[in-house]
Structure formats: structure tokens, C-alpha cells
Amino acid sequence: MIPFQWEGVMPAITTQFDSKGELDMDAYINNLRHQIDAGVHGIILGGTLGEASTLKIQEKQKLLSVTLNQTNGKIPVILNIAEQSTEQAVILAKQAELEGADGLMLLPPMRYKATDKETIMYFSEVAKSTSLPIMIYNNPIDYKIKVTLEMFSYLEKFKNINAVKESTRDITNVTRMINRFGDRFKILCGVDTIAMESLLMGASGWVAGLVDAFPEETVAIYTYCKNSEIEKARSIFRWFLPLLELDISPQLVQNIKLCELATGLGTGFVRPPRLPLEGNEFKRVQKIIKRGLENRPKNLDYKKYL
Which residue segments constitute the domains of the chain, with CATH numbers given? Predict the structure, then answer.
């Protein structure tokens, strides 16, 4: 078992379904193995891209078990917690620890715009219930609750709250966090389109979306940035940006699953209430994918650093 580090590329991995809406574990394992082979540094289960809101508890348990088996202690497996009640979040945190998860990604309370104090108390109760390392997901644009610097100051006392998925879409927030807290909270970019900028400004990692379809390119950008091969990273990122923009959309799951289908890393099926893209939007996304595949970078040599 390697020591846990909040760093590197951590895919917010998708859940694969068949045409009937059932889990397709063969397709899931195929994608997971490509992530591992590309050199990702961790796996995050049960996020938005994992369609967690549509999964039964038993399905989440199965996905966690299979992922732990496939990673075999080589990289950490992090489970997302996004619950409506503090009680249920605590229950799931304890359960995740018992079932072998290596860490947690924790969202503010769902479906209720909690006050700063309520949000802090929610995070605090979960932190007290487990010894697992916790990454706070700070995404005020999508979830309407911003975790401010003052709130992080309060959370400093919980030693197992030690990272943030920075999704405010304000690149200067990386510097604000570092200026205020040094390396107390590791910062992982949660927005694909500003990942390179975040890494260059001091983020230690990237919770990535398009990595699910393009694992090598994503890990290459991170690796080149960390090894000062900036021109190589910039070249790939410029190619990648039209695809990365598919991540900042309410239909990011459908978009990324179409990318997976095109690269042979997924079935393309989503689970209702999500529906497949159609009409002009489907054509638009397909055009972006086609252009990306036609110009896909070749001869990536980032693995010399791994």
C-alpha cells in the first residue's frame, strides 16, 4: 500500500451501463484499467460523472469493491459523499471506511442552500466520524454554496480535512488559498478548462473529467507541467481545450460518455433522468470529438517521468 497523497490526476470516473440501464462491469473495468495504465494517481467514485444520484447503495458498494480489487493498493480510491442530511453523510463516511475506501470527497449539503455555519457543521460532523482523509468539493457555481477562506480557517483544526477540489472557476483562488494556508490544504483543480493554469499556479493535482476518454493526454499534461516541460503541456492543452469544454455543461455526463464511446472506453449509455443527446446538440458534440480524434497528439513521452 502506497502512502496516500492528494496529488496528480484523479479521474472522476464514469459508471458504465448497458442498453438496459444495468451496470456493465466489463466496460467499467476496461476503462479503469486504461486509467491505471496511463498512470493516473487515484480514482474518485460516485461523483456527478459517476451518476451517483441514480445508483443504488448496493451498486455503489459493488463499484467500490471492484475498484479496490483492480487498483490493488497501488493508487488511492476515493468515494464521493453528497447527501441531503448530516446523519446520512456520517453513515456513508463510516461505511466507506469499513469497506476499504482510502479517502472521501465531500460536498456541502445537497438540495438545501445551507448557511456558512450549517455547512461548517455538516463538514465537521463527517470529519469527526472517520479517520479517512477528506477533500472538500468547493463548487459554488453548480452547488450554490461557496466554501470561503474563513470557513477553511475553521476547518483547519480537523487534520483529516486536508484537500480541496477547487471548482470556483476563479484561478486566483488557488493563490489565495496558498497565501492563506501554505500547504495545509492540497489544491486539486476541478474544472478541466483551467487545469493547466491551476497546476502552474501551485495546484497539486487535477480531478479530471475528459480523462475518462483521454487518459494518456490528461496525465501527460500534468506530468509535463510538474517536470517543467511547459511547451509540451501547452501544445497538448491547446489541442484538448475544445474537448475539455464539454466538461463545463449541464450535459457533461452525456458529452463525456460520447467521447468514451469514440475512444473505445465506454458504452455511451446514461441512466435516466439523463437522456442521450439528440438533434443539433448531438451533431455539435460529435463534430468536436471527430476533430479532436483527427488531430490527436502522437508519440507522447511523458511515461519517462513515471
Answer: 8-305 (3.20.20.70)
